[in-house]
Amino acid sequence: xDTCVFCEIVAGRAPAYRVMEDEHAVxxxxxxPAAAGHTLIVPRxxxxxxxxxxxxxxxxxxRLVHRVSALLRVALAPDGLSVTHATGEAAGQDVFxxxxxxxxxxxxxxxxxxxxxxxxxxxxxxxxxxxxxxxR
Length: 136
Known about the structure:
Layout: H1 5-11, E1 18-21, E2 25-29, E3 39-43, H2 55-76, E4 80-84, E5 100-105, H3 122-135
Antiparallel strand pairs: 1-2, 2-3, 3-5, 4-5
């Protein structure tokens, strides 16, 4: 495996603007923020993406997402907050160490959603549900 920049940050070998951390995860400011306060939360143990991340580690990251979100609300007083994650290049993942984005949002900030939507038909939804149910 090539050197993972997030593993380097977790280990303290690469610089980062750490916002918060605990024994399971580290939160630091994104160097290319979508908005002021854009924070990344990563598990201390390397996992490439959500498919490799153990369930308990996912829960620990989610706990730190919750704590960071509360901190950003007090510190920056945003109008809202976006929490996102991408697994795989097709979804836009560009650092292959699981991470969640916590992005403070303000009305009119120009930050766009990652996708455009359209209403699905009942038939489309039923077909997807059947495939998901069969995979359980």
